[in-house]
Design brief:
By secondary structure, the protein is of the alpha/beta class. Helix content is about 45%, strand content about 15%. It has a single domain, classed as P-loop containing nucleotide triphosphate hydrolases (Rossmann fold).
Amino acid sequence: MNIAFWSMTSGRSGTSSNMLAVGIMSALAYSVEGTLLQLDQFSMSIDEAFGERRQTNLLMEEYSYYSKKGIDRLVDKAQVDDIQSNDLYDNAVPVKDTKMNYIPASKRVSLGVSSREMHIFAKKIFDILDKEKEFNFIDCENGEMSISKTILKCADVVVINLCQGMSLEALDLDKELLKKAVFLVGKYDDASNEDIAKIRRKYGIARGDIATIPYNIRFHDALHEGKLLAYISKNMNTKVNDDNLSFINSVFLATDMILRKAGYDERSR
C-alpha cells in the first residue's frame, strides 16, 4: 500500500514531519515493513531526520554530482532505462532496528523532469514499492503542482494534512480522492477555538477519518538533530506523563487511523 501525505499549503501543517512520525511509529509499534520516500524538495531533507546531514561545505551542484544515491539516481535511471526492484534496494538506506528504510531525498533544486515523465516515474516506483514492501509513506510536494496530482492519483491512501484555520473549500477535492482520504491536523493546539470536533462538524468528516498531531518542540529538535528514531522509541516506553507522552499518543492514534485505512489488520498477524 502506498500512502501519500499532502497539504494545500507549505509549512503550516507539518506534512513532512507528520509523514516521518507516522512512518517510524508504524515501524516501531506495528513492525511494519516499508519505505519512506520524499518528493517534496522544499522541506527539510528526510536524510537529516536520521543523522545524514548535507555537506554544506560543498556547492549544491558539486555535492549532487558526487553523492547521487537516492531519488536523484532513480530519476536519472528512469530517463534512459526501466527501473527494477534492485534499483530501489540499491538506493535505499535501512532504518536501524526496524523493517523500514528510506530513499535519500533529492539534492537538486529541480528534479528536471516533465509532468509526463514524472507520471511515468511515479507509477513505476509505486508499482515496485507495492510489490516489494507492505506499507510505503510518500511525502508529496504541497500545493496544486502537477507532480503532486500525479502522485495522489497513484496512491492507495491519501493523508490530507490540515492546519487549524484552513478552508477546505480551497482544496477542491474530487470524490475519487476523498474515497481514499483521511485527514490529519498537524501542529494542533487544543487551546484553539477551532478544535477537532469543530473541524469535523464544519466539513462533515467522519470521526474515524481525522486525527491530530500537536506541535512539540522536543520532536522538532529531534528531527533537526538526526534523532527521530531515538526520540520516538524512547518516549513510546516512557511512564512520565508529560508533553512527550501526549505527543506520542497522538502519533500512535494517527498512525492507527492511517494504517487501518490502508487495510492493516492486526488480527491477521
